[in-house]
Amino acid sequence: MAGQIECSRRTVLRFAWAGMVAVGALSVKPLVDYLTSKEDQPRTPLVAYEKSLTAKTDWQHVPNSRVWVKRDDQGIAALVATCTHLGCEVTYHPERKQWLCPCHGSIYDTEGRPVAGPAPKALPRAAVERKADGSLIINTEKQVGLDARL
Predict the structure, then answer these.
(1) What is the pLDDT of residue 149?
(2) Is 41's pLDDT higher than 80?
(3) Based on C-alpha coordinates, what's the Rg of the chain?
(4) pLDDT tens by residue, 54-73
(5) Could you tell me the CA-to-CA distances from 101 to 7, 41, 67, 81, 119 in Å, in that order?
(6) What's the predicted TM-score (pTM) here?
């Protein structure tokens, strides 16, 4: 047959290797962009909570953030709902009194201490201050102990 091209096994393997290198090189930029993304990070470390926490309450979500606040017998506490394993957002389930991580199955008790899964430490607590008008300012960069309350 005229025009038939002969390829050795070595030539085919070289093309396959070149294709794998090209695919790997093309996937580096999206991977780096994903790993260095600031999408889930707060734009400011200060989060305002303007609702009233006058009575003993369970955890209340602060809109547009990963911050939750509650009032108990000791005072007002704020928690940042970011899993200490790999940074996924955890969700509070009041009926179970637990925080659950949807990514790798970490479970935290109502105070944010790990009880199951790969999470190495408790959910971070943030400092809380009260403004003159009674609203709260939560500083997510200033971490405090589990027993700290306003």
Answers:
(1) 76
(2) no
(3) 25
(4) 778 889 888 888 899 988 88
(5) 53, 17, 15, 9, 9
(6) 0.67
Q: Which residue has the tokens 């306003």?
A: 150
Q: What is the pLDDT of residue 3?
A: 66
Mean pLDDT across 107-131: 91
Instruction: Identify residue 78 by its one-letter amino acid code.
Output: A
| Gap between the Cα atoms of 2 and 149, Å rounded | 85
What HEC string does the chain produce?
CCCCCCCCHHHHHHHHHHHHHHHHHHHHHHHHHHHCCCCCCCCCCEEEECCCCCCCCCCEECCCCCEEEEEECCEEEEEECECCCCCCECEEECCCCEEECCCCCCEEECCCCEEECCCCCCCCEEEEEECCCCCEEEEEEEEECCCCCC
Q: Report whether pLDDT(5) > 80.
A: no
Q: What residues have CB less than 8 Å from 56, skipping those under 6 apart?
A: 71, 72, 73
- Number of C-beta neighbours around residue 150 at 10 A: 17
Instruction: Show the CA angle centred on residue 34, arms to residues 30 and 38, nearest 5°.
Output: 140
Distance, CA of 112 to CA of 146 (rounded, Å): 8
Which residue, among 145, 93, 99, 109, has the nearest Cα to 124 in the 3D structure? 145
